[in-house]
Amino acid sequence: AARRTCIMVAMQGDRKAEGAKNLWGQASHHWNLSIGTYIVWSLLSENRLDELEQELDQVKWDIVGLAEVRRSGTALKTLQSGHQIFYSGNDVGQAGVGFIINKELAGNVIEVEGISDGMCKLVLSLNKTTRINVVQVYAPTSSHPDEEIEELYEKVTQVVENCKGNTTLVLGDFNAKVGQKENAREKEIGKFGLGERNERGRMLLEFASRNKMRIMNTFFKKPRDRKWTWQGPNASVKNEIDYILSSRTDIVKDVKVITKANIGSDHRPVFAKIKINARQERRKMVGKQKQIDRHMLIQNSDEFQIKLGNRFEALSGEDDLDLKCTNITDAISEIVGEIAGSTRENSKSEKLSQATKDLMKKRREMKRQGNIQNVEYREVCKTVRKRIRE
User: Fold this and answer.
1) What is the pTM for the complete model shown?
2) How far apart are alpha carbons 322 and 319 in whole angstroms?
3) Which whole-number Å values give the CA distances from 339 to 280, 282, 327, 345, in the listed order?
4) What is the pLDDT of residues 145-204, one digit of tens each?
5) How much is the CA Rg of the chain, to the nearest whole Å?
6) Which strand ranges, in their side-by-side order, compose the sheet holding 63-67?
């Protein structure tokens, strides 16, 4: 197993400062990001890295999750171009995952973590209160047993649950076909899946449902030849098995397969267009922390008017109308919270029962002891899958 390594990255610029301009010439609280995933078929040599950079130059990109990197160990390196590459691999130079980070966004990456040779995580900070967690996954192929896939999803679930902030993307090659929507209850999938669902696709949908995520590829209508992400030998089979999952649908404006970039892999890169207003995110966080007692607000209306008048006086010198509007909205929310706000109780409930967690623990112990061939182990696996679905 790859060594679990976490690298805390020093900020390399002040792009998060209020009033600064980002690389698209917009105020820094507006972010338009292009985040993708690509199975690259080895970046072992420097020539392959150069080839990848050359191909990516043809498209707009900020963060790209990588699989089949095939580099040993875990490291973060700055390339000659100024872009950064992070990789997490095993000791024999097989499999491996990572990220390539655009030099224009490198200063906003505050953490990269190699969890295994099939999973890594990146944390992107847009300002003091807005973060995006990006988890790159490379799932085993269909030749591996279902139990191995379930263990992978358990690990991904643990990583997702420990992510700070309210925005998490999970992307990569899941070796699964989710196919088309089968009924209206399947909220985690849209109307535009490709092909027919297989067992691994059902497992991916269960994972998405448990973690309240959406498989975003399936929410955007594209021509059939722009949907598939992997093709078999001689182009005999074309499937959609690479996905981008998001904990939020409102920030994902498009997901598309890229045909321009090609370094000889049998996979095509998939990119999501992300749009975030960091100021709005801050207001949402304030709103989630407090609920308003209307009766208390009415009783203290005089105090509210005085505080609001003082705050408006301080804002009178601002000429930018957009900024002034935002500041006024923030001022009203903050003063209402001070006078009539109360902290909400944490309503988050456990997704799985303790009995199910105990069974999962028993399954792990049986596997460590080498008891995976007996009938009891198979029955435990079946029971775990059944209870997770329930």
Assistant:
1) 0.72
2) 9
3) 22, 19, 18, 18
4) 888 999 999 999 999 999 988 899 999 999 999 999 999 889 999 999 999 999 999 999
5) 23
6) 74-78, 84-88, 97-101, 63-67, 30-39, 270-277, 252-257
Structure tokens at 29: 């609280």
Q: Look at the chain and count its residues.
A: 390
d(CA 88, CA 72): 7
- Mind listing the pLDDT tens digit for each residue in 234-275? 888 999 999 999 999 999 999 999 999 999 999 999 999 999
- How far is the C-alpha of 22 from the C-alpha of 193, rounded, in Å? 35
How, if at all, do strands 109-116 and 5-8 pair?
A: antiparallel
The confidence band for 17, taking pLDDT boundaries of 50, 70 and 90, is very low
